[in-house]
Design a protein that fits this description.
This protein is of the alpha/beta class. Helix 1 (15-28) links the parallel strand 1 and strand 2 (39-43). Helix 22 (602-623) packs parallel to helix 24 and helix 23 (628-650) packs antiparallel against helix 24.
Amino acid sequence: MKFAVVGPAPPFRGGIAAHTATLVRALRASDEDDGARHTVTVHPYRRLYPRLLFPGTSQLAPDGGAPLPGAGAALDPYDPRTWRRVADEIAVAAPDLAVVQWWHPWFAPMLAWLLGALPARGFARERLAVVCHNVLPHQPVPLQRTLARSVLRRAGHVVVHARSEAERVLALVPRARVHCVPMPCLAPEAPAPSREAARARLGLDARPWVLCFGLVRAYKGLDDLLVATAATPDDAFRVLIAGEFYVREAPLRARARALGIEDRVRIENRFFADREVPDLFAAADLVVLPYRRATQSAVLPLAVRYRRKLVVTDAGGLAEAAPEVARVVPAASPGALAAALVEALAAPAPDEGAFAAAEARQHPAGLRRAFAAIAAESRGSTAEPSPVLASVVVCTQGTEPLLRDCLVALCDQELPDGVRHEVVVVAGTEPAAIRAMLGEGFDCAGVDVRIVHEPERGLNHKRNRGVREARGTLLLFTDDDCVPDRGWVAACCAALRSHAALCGRVVPLNRGYRASVRTATAARLHRGRAARAAAWRIGCGNNMAFRRATLDDLGGFCPAIGVGTWSGAACDTELFLRALRRGVAIAYVPDAVVLHRQPRFRADWLRKRRAYYRGVSYLARRVHPTDWAAWWMAATRLLASAAELVLGTLLLRRTAVTRALVQCRGCLEGLLPPAGDPGSGRVTTR
């Protein structure tokens, strides 16, 4: 694949330049599976901040920092001619993905122009990705929200390193397609020196040392650290504050004197080169991040790499970065911080397995995989048709008599050139029982039909198993009581070239009570707040499809809700809501048709309605309790059912009253689940 990366790079210093270098190195590294390397063109900055706006001593790395090879035209924030030159180069090169770094509104005019000029040059917006380090700056600036929105709304994808930042992006740009990727370790790999050698070079004694590393800013909670240090015994530890001050140093020293801990605090007010970093972490017994506010931190992965104990606050994305090894305390709580520091120093270090798990998650290879997946998804929506393998997942308990007809229909699909498909049947019973049900005369017509056993109850458990077993890049889902049209697979595959997720038309197979049916014949794209508020109307889980990269990015299906769990239904609504919240547009494709068996008996139909309304309420009560759209759906379903009950009573319509009573009962059951239900099914971003 081809990538273009726009952002500060060495010899500029700081986290954003280091991130650009790490991203470029990761993309250029050999793939572990096939040895392939991506082609990357870097468009670095010529200048950054004007001197009046920069509080540090220099914007260049102290050791010079070699420029990245393979650089294209450079951007100058103060020379619009360079903006046009970079836009032309990217448009002509036509990379699979253009990645732009965003961290401060000062650069919004240039980046907003660039992201707007590329589509005007024929470069698809879907192939524009913004790495958002800080949605809003740490120190407020005028028009910050407007400037941030002007950049982020022009990107096809927004990549963040913390869930809190993902929420901020969606608050500014509700339609943004947001990907949350762990913050990688940005420093080049270097062996850790011995503690004795490191302390000798730094002039530290043998007492315990707590390291607070990084640029010193007001929001980083250094005052809380000093107060916490004063609250501990004199011999508990010493504090090493290592980093260039972007605030005045004198008030911090005066504060240490006033607290009587001046002899316990050592301050090194300068920028440390990469070659000096290993000594700092090797010499420390513990690393502390006492931040009052944060997005994420590049210091935390360094502590993990050098296997140092960690104490962090719950600000921003710090707690989620390394939960295996970090002690977490409330932000702006010096008392809790003091206790945590003393306890952490006295306790043994986390085991190697915990550090290894955290380090694996923070490895730069994660950046490569994430951006390669985004590029593949974006390229699929703009490139010429290419051979694809679609995997159809059918889940069954082995008791549905229509299963054979479903599989026969799937094996008899009309496919265009370059499209192949396989069928993965995930059964709650043994595969031998399913084969016996299909009979000896079952003909798969050359289609790869695999039957796997998943004993775990729950439809979503089985769907997740089907995803793991599937080999295709396109994932199609239907149920064992459906019969797909002969063109269903082809229609889904064609639509997935332009859309990341879709639902199709569901028509009744037989006469009966209508359930899980969508018969609209007009295509529609569901996205934004309005779609979230009516996610239950988008489509049905018996006819939906996703690009694998999209479904992986969403975290798969939530096993705490749906058929086979206490909630009984609404597993498709939950996934649609989560996708919309992440900025994934869901297409309704009327050409993708399946026929669905309808309940023949009124009692079965009422049971389904009760389960569905219970599931929608449970979705708000337990699965997404902080999502306004989930509560909106639950409230509107309950109020509509109550209104139907009142109106049916007044008009003496027995059927309407019975239906409304069942719906109201389901709503109330979902809002008041029993204490023994499976618990929260909240889904977290990877």
